[in-house]
Amino acid sequence: MSQADIDSTKAPLIEHLIELRSRLIRSILAFAIAFGLCFAVAGHIFNLLLVPYEIAAGSAEAIRLQYTAPQEYFITQIKLAMFGAGFISFPIVANQIYKFVAPGLYKNERSAFLPYLVATPVLFLMGAAFVYFAAMPLAMRFFLSMQQAGGDGHASIELIARTSEYLSLVMTLIFAFGICFQTPVILTLLARAGFIDSQWLKDKRRYAIVVVFAIAAVLTPPDVISQVALAVPTILLYEASIVVVKMVEKKRAEAEKAEGSPD
Hints:
Layout: H1 3-40, H2 42-49, H3 51-57, E1 65-66, H4 72-101, H5 107-144, E2 161-162, H6 163-180, H7 183-192, H8 198-203, H9 205-219, H10 224-260
Parallel strand pairs: 1-2
Helix pairs in contact: 1-4, 2-4, 3-5, 4-6, 5-6, 5-10, 7-10, 9-10
Main location: membrane
Membrane topology: Multi-pass membrane protein
Subcellular location: Cell membrane; Membrane
């Protein structure tokens, strides 16, 4: 390659780097603004996350939380603000990624990529909602059932949770369910790329069930309720993925038939 050819490639590369920098700056600014807003109302957000605990306990007055280090609740608020900022800024960050990648895609590739970009946050929010309204209340009922009333020669054992540990539990479950709820997106993308098909998914169903329960055991707290609550919806999503992959295969077959048919 001549020096002239090398010099001719520098301008497009610099332009791409400048665009990448601008996209990153916008994404970071969106996250920073969302972080500031969430930190300002971190206490209210934490109270919202306590609702599943309240459902399990029966009332807000029955809940007792504590922090055992001076900086613990402050750090908890920072984590909570980062957690909320990730949710709020994700659409902007995803839009910046799409705008950076889109010019290098064909029109049909952009139209195929866009539904997955929309489906990803929707499925994540569905997973978070499942945690909030179903999985977390079930888990807290299980944990609260282990309390022991005092008297008759028995010590009193009462749950007084730390604020940081409760937030860690909620965040872990939300991320675990949010990721597992991406199963249809991941499997459909693999099907579009030609790595798997619906028949392969059917044949590997038994192995998938074992893997799902193993992942649920790793991602959730060490109690059966949380693990089953994560595993069962993920298996149902796996079954839904088979249907979606079939639809992708059918659409692909129709497109190939249309291309191969004479005008």
